[in-house]
Amino acid sequence: MSIKDLYSSGFVARNQGHFAAIVRVALSDGKIVEEEKLFLQRLAKKLNIGEVVYAEILENPTNYPINPPTTYNRRLERLFDLVRIVYVDLEIKEKQITMLERIGVGLGFAPANVEFIVQKALQLIKEGVLDVDTFSEEIKNMNR
């Protein structure tokens, strides 16, 4: 197997794991509403996830590992995607927050800080922060 093949398969697996984590959050309230479905379809396309794998992930997202990102900026990007999917239906439930916190730990955020990071992330999305750069800067500077 060539280096290119190894890199490609690792990249694909990371994207699938990220997408599966987002599907888990979307399903945390027991259903995927139309807005979530549209977001998931757009995200799948962005992550180069084909229709067959898309259907498999929707069927059983726990078959795919989270694959934590290696940099803090990548963690924030993934958290941004996750929080946006939770906030789509505007009615955030405790179960969804708990799921976000669990996935946040899986992404590599410290367990002692993940609750605060998730709360700040939800607040930012609620306030209308729609770009990942502003979101990331706000999270990085939330204690100042």
Explain what this protein looks like in three dimensions.
- With 144 residues, this protein is mostly helical.
- It has a single domain, classed as TerB-like.
- Helices cover 68% and strands 0% of the residues.
- It contains seven helices and no strands.
- It has helices at residues 3-26, 34-46, 51-59, 72-87, 94-107, 114-126, 132-140.
- α1 (3-26) packs antiparallel against α5 (94-107).
- The longest helix is centred in the N-terminal third of the chain and has 24 residues, at 3-26.
- The radius of gyration is 15 Å and the shape is globular.
- The protein starts with a helix and ends with a helix.
- The model is unreliable at 1-7 (pLDDT under 50).
Number of helices: 7
Q: How many runs of DSSP E, i.e. beta strands?
A: 0
The description of the largest β-sheet is: none
Query: What is the helix fraction of residues, given as a range?
Result: 55-70%
CATH class: Mainly Alpha
Please mark out the parts with pLDDT under 50 across 5 or more consecutive residues, or reply none: 1-7
Known CATH architecture:
Orthogonal Bundle
Strand residue percentage: under 5%
Which fold name fills CATH's third level, the topology? TerB-like
Mean pLDDT: 81
Outline type: globular
Summarize the SSE layout with pairings.
Layout: H1 3-26, H2 34-46, H3 51-59, H4 72-87, H5 94-107, H6 114-126, H7 132-140
Helix pairs in contact: 1-2, 1-4, 1-5, 4-5, 4-6, 4-7, 5-6
Which key features would you list for this structure?
mainly alpha, 7 helices, globular
